[in-house]
Amino acid sequence: xxxxHTRRKQLTIRWxxxxxxxxxxxxxxxxxxxxxxxxxxxxxxxxxxxVSLVQFRSFPSGANVDINDKKQSFTTPGxxxxxxxxxxxxxxxxxxxxxxxxxTVRSGEIRWIDYVRLIPQTITTDSVKSFDSIKQMMASPxxxxxxxxxxxxxxxxxxxxxxDPKNIRFSQLTIPAxxxxxxxxxxxxxxxxxxxxDGSRFVMIKHDYGAGSEIIRLDRKNPGAADNLTRxxxxxxxxxxFAGSSGNVFYALTGTDLRKFDxxxxxxxxxxxxxVSAYNLYGDSKLAYVATTxxxxxxxxVGVYVDGKNTIVRTYDSIKRTFAQFTHYYDSDYLAIxxxxxxxxxxxxxxxxxxxxxxxxxxxxGGMDFMExxxxxxxxxxxxxxxxxxxxxxxGDNYVFQTAGTSxxxxxxxxxxxxxxxxxxxxxxxxxGTNRSRIxxxxxxxxxxxDGRYLLSLGDGSAGAILQRSKMIVD
Length: 475
Hints:
The chain is mainly beta. A hairpin with a 5-residue loop joins β30 and β31.
């Protein structure tokens, strides 16, 4: 009898133990799920709240961080859990203007605040070189080279080596005379810079001579070996864009035909798409385009051409102007279409399942005279005159702001900052129009050095124009 009770007691203890273990496992899994979902136990307030992880970085680093007016124990770079919802952030450092923003974070989200650029309270600007005039400035993609066109009618271009922004060196590039068509008697030439190749070696230049025009490819390493692309291919080329870093492959329009060109083997493709009014090249071979059909009633087609495959994504009437831009961000393709007052952002436009239901819509009140993705592909920006709207593909946030002195498409100095010109002053601001800081008096294009420590811009000097250098760091 004693053995029977002992066995029953053992079974009871065993089942109780198994039950407790099962409950513990279930509660453990629920706790893990809750943790991953952003729930935290606030012992101080005796409540459960949802939180997000915010990662902070700044240039320069070593800045203090306040979250909802509470100073944190770390300096940038750093991280902190915050309650989901609207969160006030402030980042500051001695010698720099304070940075602040209110962000809305979602529970369980990892939000990167890694774009903070602190602007010195006192900015030192010096003159690098004086010119009679500067008509155009264009930096190479690697931010190591700068082209300065100082006249409209001369084939001479100043090349600046800005790889060491404290010791900028200058040289002259001249388009060979035999690479240019002589204008008719009584008419003049004019030159304009189009774009660098991704390898930062070759540059496209448009030469207008009287009523004609031609495209010239100039090699900064060997300017004497320039190529007259219009003459070499015997085609009227317009809207050329380099593909890749070799400087040999480019796309361009011939009339309304979109073609691919290869300078290396002097080959040109048959028309890839016909009736094209505008196109955008992303990477080496992905092209978004707007084309108009010949048949009545005329229609506008928005499509994407990739590696021999042409995909028509949307069809519209031909009444309104239509914009199309392609980008790739975080392993996903996006096609943005601007039309009227609406920007449609279509994820995975090349997939069979791409539909209106998956599109993201952004409103641009009053319409738009531009629409484009930022250089990183993260932001799409559109607007009319000084009114701007932007959308962040990473966070899903959209913004409405104005650029008081700048109409049309913004000029990006890096992945997150653009330029606003107001009353003869160069001002930096972020992708959402906030944290605006006056830098220096100036005009035209600006270039942030590859190390981020200097901003190069154009200013007016006593003898004409100057290339100026503003120090963006406090030693």
